[in-house]
Amino acid sequence: MSAQILDGKATAEKIREEIKDDVSRFVAQTGVQPALAVVLVGDNPASQVYVRNKETACVKAGMKSLMFRLNAETTSDALCDLIEKLNKDDSVHGILVQLPLPKGIDEKRILDLIDPQKDVDAFHPENVGLLSQGRPRFLPCTPYGIQQLLIRYNIETKGKRVVVIGRSDIVGKPMGLLLLQKGLGGDATVTVCHSRTDNLADVVKEADIVVAAIGKAQFVTADMIKPGAVVVDVGMNRIQKEIVDENGERKTVSKLVGDVDFDAVKEVASWITPVPGGVGPLTVTMLLLNTLNAARRLVADAQ
Ligand code: NAP
User: Where are the domains of the chain?
Assistant: First the structure.
């Protein structure tokens, strides 16, 4: 039987409506409009798209979006000056530096400089530390979105064996931490795998829930999945695919695919996220929620 779809797009839309209502209530109560500063350095085409999506989502939710576009020759010092200015600006509640930064810029130095109270991506060591201690200030957007998706589809994580493939600081590691936490959307028994994991397929096959965050197109195949498992695909990979068009001519098109071989895995899994329309829309949504929460906290502290 074919798996049911975990519809990230629809879930994201629902959460965005909730956020929009909360923002308008917050603005009515405080007179403050939550504001997100987005810093983009260089002209990476994918980053330009991500940043535009974030800007649009912010505005639709009733928040202010402040864009800072810097050229690729920007120095670490100049970027630090901008971050310090945004840290001090009381009208800015969230700061996001779009990654990757151009070569030559010290990424860690920049991210560590963001005021942890405004660190809506939750990359600052202070926020990572708070998360690992089970008392998070902000939850990292992609894992947070995945956790919300599971909760909203009533997919039980308590006591379940979860295998996360990938140990990046942005997705894999914080995903493991979130699922390990006590309470709703947590209490799982978590294994985090990576490129040095022995017998990866055997480990994945034990999982009730698989989260694939590898960055390799269609890496997770049907034979790696336990029948009935829940499969969450974080991957976003562009592949070239040959198709025959309506005139019978062969042509090569670019296609977005995940880290999971969707067509085959959906025949084994019970639930699965599609790509696109799965995890992606939730990431931006949780960024909005983190920005609203940052504004709530900063405004309450100032009173
Ligand atoms: P990343 O920093 O490149 O990390 C990839 C991880 O996968 C690493 O831990 C790596 O292991 C592991 N890995 C690579 N090859 C492997 C293999 N053969 N077997 C087992 N593990 C392997 O990537 P990321 O930032 O976490 O992103 C992962 C994917 O998610 C990408 O496609 C990215 O575009 C996508 N993504 C999507 C969203 C969204 O909103 N949908 C957000 C973020 C990322 P090592 O540590 O040993 O090298």
Answer: 31-114, 141-280
Q: CATH second-level architecture of 141-280? A: 3-Layer(aba) Sandwich (3.40)
What pLDDT, in 10s, does the model give residues 269-282? 999 999 999 999 99
Q: What is the pLDDT of residue 303?
A: 84
Is 223 assigned a catalytic role? no
Residue 1 pLDDT > 80: no
Helix, strand or coil for residue 222? helix
Compute the average pLDDT of residues 207-226. Answer: 98
Residue nearest to atom 6 of ligand 1 (CA): 166
| Statement: 31-114 belongs to CATH 3.30.360.10 | no
pTM of the model: 0.96
Residues 195/196/202/205 CA torsion (nearest 10 deg)? -40
CB of 204 closer than 6 angstroms to any ligand 1 atom: no
Please indicate whether residue 199, judged by its CB atom, sits closer than 6 Å to ligand 1: no
DSSP strand pairing (4-5 vs 64-70): unpaired
Atom of ligand 1 nearest to the CA of 282: 40
Distance, CA of 288 to chain centre: 12
Active-site residue, from 7, 98, 226, 261: 98
